[in-house]
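Below is a typical protein record.
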Amino acid sequence: MKTSNITMPYPPELDLERIKIEAQKAVWFYDRLDDACPYPFATVAGVAFKDAFLKAQAEQAQALAADTQDATHATTQAIPRI
C-alpha cells in the first residue's frame, strides 16, 4: 500500500476558526500579545492566534481612531465661530 507524501498544513484536530475567534475576543481584554496568547508561540496554534490577534488589534485601533476623528469633527462643527 502506497502512502501519500502530502502533509496537511495543520493537524486536523486544530480548529483555526475557534483560535481566530479567541484572538479577536482577546483584543478587547489584552493590550499585549504575550499576555493574550494561551498557546506556545512556536506552534501552529500560536502562530494562528498571533496573526488573528494582530489583525484584530489593528482593525480595533483603526476603528477607534475613526470614532475619535468623527467625534472631534462633530464637536468643532457644533461650536459657533465668532
Notes: Helices lie at 16-26, 33-36, 44-78.
